Amino acid sequence: MTAPKVAESAEDISNLAFGFMASKALFAGLHIDVFTRLAQGPKNIEDLSGESGVPVNRLRILMQAIGAVGLVQSDEDRYENAPASNLFLSRTSKYDFGDYLRYQIDRQMYGHLEQLNSCIDGVLDADAVASYAHWMSDPEQAALYSESQHSGSLGPGLTLARTVDLTGAKTLLDIGGGTGAMAIRFCQANPELEATIIDFPNVAEIGWRFVTDAGLVDRVRYIPANAITAAWPTGQDAILMSYLFSGVPGEAITDLIQRAFESMAPGGHYMIHDFMVDEHGGGPSLAALWQLQHMAFTPDARSVSFDWLRRYLTGVGFEDVTVQEVVPGMTTMVYARKPGTASA
Question: Quick check: pTM over 0.90?
Answer without folding.
Answer: no
